[in-house]
Amino acid sequence: MRIVGFRASSSGIATYTAELAKALARVDRVVLVAFGIDRSLKSELVSKGVSVLDLGPDPGWRFDVGGPFLAYGLLRRRVRRALGEGGYAVYTIPGFALGERRPGIVVAWGHLGFWQLLGVGAKWLPHLFKFVGVPNTSAYWLLDNWVFRRAETIVALTSWSFRHYSRRYGDRVVWIPPPVEPAPCSSPGDRLRLVFVSRDLGLPRKNLALVVRALSGLGPYLKKMSLTLVGEGGGRLADLVSRLRGRGLEVRLTGRLSRSETRRVLCSSDVLLYPSFYEELGYAVLEAMAAGLAVVASNVPPFDDFVAEGINGFLVDPVDPKPLSRVLAELVEHSDLLIKLKANSLSIVKNRFNPLAVARQFQKIILGKGR
């Protein structure tokens, strides 16, 4: 089975692709096509039985400036030269199926229509990227749906994307949750250890500003907390951090980390804060749950697929900081609640996002096609 493909610059999609490759390697021979894969992840995948076809560096976002049809047309040509024609494939990025008459399995991201997606781009992309980003957003939507119209099977990762794409493509759409391997490592600490993860901490839609506003109103509670920020700085990050430190909160900046380094940070944390205004999936939430963290995310799709209110975390308003402040104060005061939430995160991962169960669902689809 071929998985096409991994692009380091695709962030959460890259993480999903790697986890899917490991899951499918449990039931089949897997070849993963990869651009920009780092050495440690490649070694991990190989140790799990995945054959990695490393096609060199990921061209990155600059390669996409000419539009996704051009970018993936060129990338697809490189993939074809390496793999040859034919062979059943799972496309985790729809653009890689560009030019295929009848793609096998294509993974669908997101849950918004064309105009909704344009609105998200116009509102939440950084100002410097709006000129290129908004037109590219519309082009990606067109490319994805061009591929979906030809695909044999479309895999939706959340209930939201399943409902959205089922309305357009009917029974060719199946819902298969993303796989994540339970790897509990979070141990108790002497304070409430918060972590916020984003490739770019300054991205407006990631909503670090809400975290700062919520924490700023917690007064004496701050001495019983710490905050780790994982990702590259941007925007007003220095001012925000200075503001929190000035109020007595211990804040640690790690810069951008590899996946294994990020996991070590999760292992020394209790709660993932993820108050984004919009996410297609938010795989970081699942990774945190797999490590045994509670999650406080925004009450927007698709987080209610992962976070059950009061069971393994909380869903809060991404605009008003008061609900987040109340939740954090409650977690400081009630350590027994935190212990319960963390244990339930692991239980949910084991029961609903089991890699072997996911692999068997994919295998059933492929066998049903007579492959």
UniProtKB/TrEMBL annotation:
* SUPFAM superfamilies recorded: UDP-Glycosyltransferase/glycogen phosphorylase (SSF53756)
Q: Which domain of life is it from?
A: Archaea
- According to the entry, every stretch annotated as the Glycosyl transferase family domain falls at 190-344
User: What are the leading ranks of the lineage?
Assistant: Archaea, Thermoproteota, Thermoprotei, Thermoproteales, Thermoproteaceae
Respond yes or no to whether keyword Nuclease is given for this record. Answer: no
Record protein name field: Glycosyl transferase, group 1
Q: Which UniProt keywords apply?
A: Glycosyltransferase, Transferase
Q: Which GO terms describe its molecular function?
A: glycosyltransferase activity
Please tell me whether the keyword Protease is annotated for this protein: no
What positions does the domain Glycosyltransferase subfamily 4-like N-terminal occupy?
Answer: 11-182
- Which Gene3D superfamilies did the record assign? Glycogen Phosphorylase B (3.40.50.2000)
Q: Which residues form a coiled coil?
A: none
